[in-house]
Amino acid sequence: MLQSFNTPNRRDRAAYHLPVMPLEVCKYLITDENGLYVDCTFGGGGHSSLLLQKFPNIKIIAFDWDADSQNEFKERENIFNGRLTFVRDNFKNIKSALSNIGVGSVSGILADVGVSSKQFDDETRGFSFNSSVLDMRMDLRNALTAKEVVNSYGQEELADIFYKYGEEYRSKQIASAIVERRKRGIITSARELHDIIRNVKKSEGKINPATKVFQALRIFVNSELENLETLLSCAPSALNKGARIVIVSFHSLEDRIVKNNFKQNALNGVYNIVAKKVIAAGYEEIKQNPRARSAKIRAAEKIYE
Ligand SMILES: C[S@@+](CC[C@H](N)C(=O)[O-])C[C@H]1O[C@@H](n2cnc3c(N)ncnc32)[C@H](O)[C@@H]1O
After folding, report:
1. Is 225 exposed, middle or buried (0-12, 13-18, 19+ CB in 10 A)?
2. Is 296 inside a domain boundary?
3. Which residues sit with their C-beta closer than 6 Å to ligand 1?
4. What is the CATH number of the domain that holds 77?
5. For residue 104, which of 65, 55, 70, 61 has the smallest C-alpha distance?
6. How many domains in the chain?
């Protein structure tokens, strides 16, 4: 039954989000085949459904802050036979959210961070270059939008955001072009922002020159790095002894945060780093799912009681 949920051969499900490195996630996460796990980033339920299918005695508490993801869950809730609980919350609140449902610690935590393909491709969300809106919130309950940042932040603040979260080397020139363009009225769409950036930066091979600024805005609007840092700092107290944390990340800023956290916890005797080297997707998977190209997995195991 569960096979019908988000498997690559169903075009509608696959369109939501193809789970990245599914075999590796199963291999590194599961240490107790009767355990209770947390999937911090349910999305289209790709990883959760695979795990529930492969390990028929585990249960999962899934987090996602996006109402679309919650709807995905609701539509298919019945096929999980009570083995999957959904919590619509920021995963940084993992400890309090688990405590609210009477759970202290779990057998493993998975986070596949960033936006889903569905969020990215949905033109009404404003993540893509040709979108007619400028929003970029993953959780529409949050107040801050990309439109507000682009239209009301000072030139220096904008340049800092583009540099810090996008490692954009033309950050100052792009911020200046945005502020200049604002004199003629509000920038209302991702498309307009894209055009402003393209007037400053020429193409760099196959990569769109606006990629880094869009990434920076998205990370800033959603406080992505801060949320990841908070999750990582809460994780040891939410894991049983012998339980693992597995993080799938998509860019170097996130991977650095995970790497440093695991290293520090290993030095403090909290974690054993499970895979000494970062795990990347293989050629066949990248061919089928190009998004997997930049994915990296790191895994650690809690070693004290
Ligand atoms: C890359 S997708 C996960 C896809 C999922 N693993 C699957 O196989 O379908 C990331 C998801 O995490 C959610 N997300 C990102 N940051 C979050 C946060 N801080 N709290 C809760 N959900 C978050 C996004 O809304 C998105 O749905």
Report:
1. middle
2. yes
3. 17, 19, 41, 43-47, 63-66, 69, 90-92, 112-114, 116, 138, 227
4. 3.40.50.150
5. 61
6. 2
- Residue owning the nearest CA to atom 8 of ligand 1: 46
Residue 32 lies in a domain: yes
Do 107 and 231 share a domain, yes or no? yes
Ligand 1: which atom is nearest the Cα of residue 6?
9
Residue after which a domain boundary falls, among 203, 221, 239: 221
pLDDT in tens, 26-76: 999 999 999 999 999 999 999 999 999 999 999 999 999 999 999 999 988
Q: Is residue 251 situated within a structural domain? A: yes
- Identify whether 133 is part of a domain: no
Using CA atoms, how far apart are residues 256 and 229, in angstroms rounded to an integer? 11
What are the b/e assignments for 157-186, b being 16+ CB within 10 Å? ebbbbbbebbebebbbbbbebbbebeeeee
**What's the chain's average pLDDT?**
93
What residue ranges of the chain have pLDDT lower than 50? 1-15
- Confidence (pLDDT) at 16: 58
Q: Do the beta carbons of residue 153 and residue 160 sit within 8 Å? A: no
- Sequence letter at residue 138: M
Which residue, 140, 61, 138, 74, is CA-closest to 105?
61
Looking from the CA of residue 42, the nearest atom of ligand 1 is 5
Q: Are residues 213 and 271 in the same domain?
A: no
Please tell me whether residues 107 and 255 are part of one structural domain. Answer: yes
Tell me the per-residue pLDDT of 101-113, one tens digit each, with 9 for 90 and over: 999 999 999 999 9
Q: Ligand 1 centroid vs 31 CA: distance in angstroms? A: 23
From the alpha carbon of 47, which atom of ligand 1 is closest? 8
